[in-house]
Amino acid sequence: MLVKSIRDSAARSIGHAKVTHAVVVIFLEFFAWGLLTTPMLTVLHETFSQHMFLMNGLIQGVKGLLSFMSAPLIGALSDVWGRKSFLLLTVFFTCAPIPLMRISPWWYFALISVSGVFSVTFSVIFAYVADITEEHERSTAYGLVSATFAASLVTSPAIGAYLSATYSDSLVVLVATIIAVVDILFVLLVVPESLPDKMRLSSWGFPISWEQADPFGSLRKVGKDTTVLVICVTVFLSYLPEAGQYSSFFLYLKQVINFSPAAIAAFIAMVGILSIVAQTLLLSMLMRKIGNKNTVLLGLGFQLFQLAWYGFGSEPWMMWAAGTVAAMSSITFPAVSALVSRCTDHDQQGAVQGMITGIRGLCNGLGPALFGFIFFLFNVELNEIPVVPVANDPASADVSDESSVIPGPPFLFGACTVLLALMVAIFIPEQHNLAIKTCSTRVVSGPVSGSQCNNSAPESDEDNEPLLQDSSL
After folding, report:
1. Are 34 and 152 in contact (CB under 8 A)?
2. Which residues share a beta bridge with 450?
3. Phi-psi region of 293 (alpha: psi -120 to 50; beta: other; left: phi over 0)
């Protein structure tokens, strides 16, 4: 009954599906979570006073692995049942842990972990955008959606830090909960269905096979085309350190670099504003001027420089400078998503975007856990890094020397993986006439059945969209 009511709500939606709907959904979801930046660090410190980096990595790791397991299934189901119902589910379960932050921190972290099953909003959103845009518009639309993620973080951490300092963390959690509810209601009442009726099933049977829902099956399918394989390996190697960095970097700024909550909020705002510029104006310009492949290589180069700077930087000004480079590296994933969408049938966008999101989900599981373990391995914890080395204590001197040489060891490791990604990306062909297709025969409501492939090629080199996240902080 719940599923039917969700599906019937599509008829009551306002207007036709637009990219604006996707932008609003993403903005509200991540604005709510951005408000919780300061309370999240406080709750994490209070709940896990020892080994915060390690526990944070494990929690985010479990969430990412569950996202990896569920992304292909949700994407494939959205191809046949429509985007709206699954968009509602993903937003609801992603935001469900928010009110528990002050009610029960242990249940909050537990729910964050299991919410990874439905934390694939970007997968459904990218498929939603692909349904309603032409190929030549898609890279710009993806860049806009990715930039919206950055825009949601421009002011929300600062607002959350102000409300937390002036009033209390409980008020911040309440405001974030209200915004999350507004987002859910927006999807339920306002967002229209983007998938045409003739492409959706009229009954709620079981329209997909285990092969479509198997996350490892989708990864095995990648290897059937060398170009797709190269792209996916590039995404994996580049997003693995990004996922680890995003899960622990704000905690790193607070615990190791001694950033205040206000400084963290200002840092996020700066990177967010620069990311918006990079993913809208800079991305489109680079795609026209230097092409797909060179855009990706440039983005990876920025990411390599940024991670190396984070790894060796020990002063606050170094973090600020590296943050500007991090914003420039955010151009990579929107371009990759645009390329993949052009090589995919119209009725398979959800499955393919689910595959890419699944790879990112795997990184979201491995990256935070890996970063947390490396921090733990190098004794990078608040209670274990002495401010002043103890006289005549060789162990204390060793820790001090180690920290001074490599303040952020996981970031240096991430720079090495991005270097590998850069080397792999060199082998991406200039043209993207990919052989792999995800066409499949399935029964649809009405007389239309069989496979539909979009094999149209660009008429000129100017029509070639540059090659492509979630989230480059």
Report:
1. yes
2. 442
3. alpha
pTM over 0.90: no
DSSP character for 450?
B
Per-residue tokens: 322: 């590296």
**Half-sphere exposure of residue 411, counting CA atoms within 13 Å on the CB side?**
28
Strand partners, 442: 450
409-425 vs 349-377: helix axis angle to the nearest 10? 140
How far is CA 41 from its chain centroid? Answer: 20
Q: Please give the full DSSP string across 183-207, using - where no structure is assigned.
A: HHHHHHHTPPP-S-GGGS-SS-S--
SS3 call for 467:
coil
* Region at 191 (left for phi over 0; alpha for psi -120 to 50; beta for the rest): beta
Listed in sequence order, the residues at least 6 apart from 299 whose beta carbon sits closer than 8 Å to its beta carbon are 328, 329, 330, 331, 332, 335
Contact 470, 149 (CB under 8 A): yes
Phi, then psi, of 330 in degrees rounded to 5: -75, 0
Burial 319-341 (b: 16+ CB within 10 A, else e): bbebbebbbbbbbbbbbbbbbbb
pLDDT digit string, tens, across residues 83-123 = 898 899 999 999 999 999 888 888 888 888 888 888 788 87
**Measured in whole angstroms, how far is the alpha carbon of residue 255 from the centre of its chain?**
24
**342-390 confidence digits (pLDDT tens):** 655 565 555 555 566 667 767 877 888 888 888 888 776 544 443 333 3
Give residues with Cβ within 8 angstroms of 156, minimum separation 6: 30, 31, 32, 33, 34, 35, 37
